[in-house]
Write a structure and sequence with these properties.
It is a single chain. With 422 residues, this protein is α+β, with helices and mostly antiparallel strands. It has ten helices and 23 strands. 23% of the residues lie in helices and 30% in strands. A seven-stranded mixed beta sheet has the order 1-15-4-5-10-9-2. The protein has a six-stranded mixed beta sheet with strand order 16-17-19-18-20-21, covered by helices on one side. The protein has a four-stranded antiparallel beta sheet with strand order 8-7-13-14, with no helix packed on it. A hairpin with a 2-residue loop joins strand 9 and strand 10. Helix 6 packs across helix 7. It is globular and about 75 Å long.
């Protein structure tokens, strides 16, 4: 396999590689592995390195590393404590070592491939890349060194581009399960952190479990995710140009899915949509635009795409002070959303709203008010989950925005979605 630079650009190539595994016959979990008697006149030469990764809650995690050596006899003995893995001030262990032929595979505490960004109390970020230092010359590794990347599940998505009849063209990633029968489809709408302008190609698949979770949890389903070039503003409902672009994108995606349905690949009665943050807000607008298309929707920590709430009431990126609306402001927002929904009847679309009660990034009022409006208009099959601060802490989240982490681990929520049919 061709060597590639271990940078963000390599993610595009790794997305189209089918996940494969190397067969290792000998397992060594002792402190020291003796490959053979070392030949002192030979230096350790690494022919290639493969990072075996998976998509975790906070992005792409490395779980093992395979070094292919030119000659294993040059290695001699090797032990887990010959390696020191760090990201900033955090250290990660090598737990086991396996050797077969000229391959040396390290099993490690999972660490983030893209490194880690740490925020201070003023939300100012400092980024640290991973570093692997070894007492054995030639086995050091840093992000950016030549390597291959294989990512569980994510590599099973096929990347393409689709141009709609409106002239808009977007890149997409599609996973289709094996077999010829019609299957359900989950459309995953990524968040603002995964747009191309500020991330990398494929971030919509790799930055969190939003796309891969349905597959890894055993649902026999297709999964589709388009990646957008830019994020939209808070208060998009008062930004006609941005709203029009979002609606044009929705037309392109709808057309693509309809093509899959017409080809007999997708069950038209089981098309689902979910997304988080900016993607959660996009879910709401997509459902409004095509109210008869989706069997169910799961908007998570939805951005306020219906009416402006965050900007006029100062609730976006608010890390200090109250996140509560006054009764008067609540009634106004309720009426404005009610008026908007009267022009697009979505009362028959089953929706499960998910958010942290004290989300400081995207106000939870968008979800709470829309849920109440729909209930008052007769919607009978909607649900809502508002995670408490304690529940978010238990999910490992200190900033109470990423409610997709506990939501995508809830079998109750995910089963509910896939039990819905048109």
């Amino acid at each position: 396999m061709k060597k590639i630079k271990c940078t963000r650009r390599c993610l595009l190539l790794s997305m189209v590689l089918m996940l494969s595994s190397t067969a290792f016959m000998t397992v060594a979990s002792a402190d020291t592995v003796k490959a053979s008697d070392a030949e002192p006149d030979k230096a350790v030469t690494v022919e290639n390195v493969t990072l075996h990764t998976y998509v975790g809650d906070d992005g792409q995690e490395v779980q093992s590393i395979t070094y292919r050596l030119k000659n294993i006899s040059a290695l001699g003995s090797i032990a887990p404590d010959d390696f020191n893995i760090t990201i900033g001030s955090e250290s990660y262990l090598v737990n086991d070592i396996m050797i077969m032929g000229n391959n040396v595979k390290l099993y490690v505490d999972p660490f983030r491939y893209l490194g880690k960004t740490v925020y201070n109390e003023k939300m100012q970020p400092t980024h640290y890349d991973f570093s692997i230092n070894s007492t054995i010359a030639g086995l050091d590794l840093k992000k950016g060194d030549p390597c291959q990347i294989k990512t569980r599940t994510a590599d099973d998505f096929v990347k393409g581009t689709f141009k709609g009849s409106n002239g808009m063209e977007l890149p997409y990633w599609l996973y289709m399960p094996a077999g010829s029968a019609k299957v359900p489809l989950m459309l995953w709408e990524h968040g603002g952190g995964e747009v191309l302008s500020s991330s990398f190609e494929g971030a919509n698949i790799l930055n969190n479990r939003g796309a891969v979770s349905w597959i890894e949890d055993g649902y026999q389903t297709a999964v589709l995710s388009f990646q957008f070039p830019e994020n939209y503003s808070f208060g998009i409902s008062e930004e006609p140009d941005q709203l029009k672009i979002m609606q044009d994108y929705n037309d392109v995606i709808h057309e693509f899915i309809q093509d899959l349905i017409n080809q007999g690949k997708i069950d038209s009665k089981r098309v689902y949509i979910s997304g988080a943050s900016s993607g959660g807000g996009a879910v709401l607008r997509f459902v409004m635009q095509y109210p008869d298309f989706f069997a169910a929707a799961l908007p998570i920590c939805a951005k306020d795409t219906l009416i402006p709430i965050s900007k006029p009431y100062g609730l976006a990126y608010k890390f200090e002070g109250s996140l509560a609306l006054t009764d008067q402001d609540y009634r106004k927002c309720y009426q404005d959303i009610s008026d908007l929904i009267s022009h697009s009847d979505i009362t028959n679309v089953p929706m499960w709203f998910v958010q942290a009660e004290n989300d400081p990034i995207c106000t939870s009022y968008t979800s709470k008010i829309l849920y109440q409006v729909l209930k008052d208009k007769g919607a009978e099959n909607n649900r809502i989950t508002m995670y408490s601060d304690e529940e978010m802490k238990q999910a490992g989240q200190m900033i109470y925005h990423s409610s997709w982490v506990p939501a995508l681990k809830s079998r109750e929520i995910m089963d509910w979605v896939y039990n819905q049919k048109k």
